[in-house]
Amino acid sequence: MTNIITLEDIKKFAGEKVITLPEDVVITRGARAWANSMGIQIKRGDKIIPPTKRLVISVLGEDRVGIIAAVSNVLADHNVNILDINQTLLQEFFAMFMIVDASDCTVSYEKLKDLLVNKGKDIGVRIDVQDEDVFKFMHRV
Fold first, then answer.
1. Could you give the number of structural domains in the chain?
2. What is the pTM of this model?
3. Cβ count within 10 A of residue 30
């Protein structure tokens, strides 16, 4: 049976610098994000689990068929996981926001951003990509 490490479980390690867990455990996103925010490194067996790298992606433009598919395909091609997505139409305008986990991305942040911006140009929309921490800092009240 696989053990699951939740946010409540991981909080018991507050103050630690490194946590070593058995190889067969599953660590929830929330637990991973909290450990990262506390500066705690997680190891599963001998392997270091990289911190979660979350990005905020916004897509704006005239509505047309295939926008979500085009953006999602770029992300999938580079092993980026979509955590949350919200899209709406404002009359004829399309607006979408995504929160993604790029922890296991196969290209650099800069390359992923360039790929998405260029895909946006190809399909006639504007795509912006920001690190979640930068986004939160810029939009704090």
1. 2
2. 0.68
3. 13
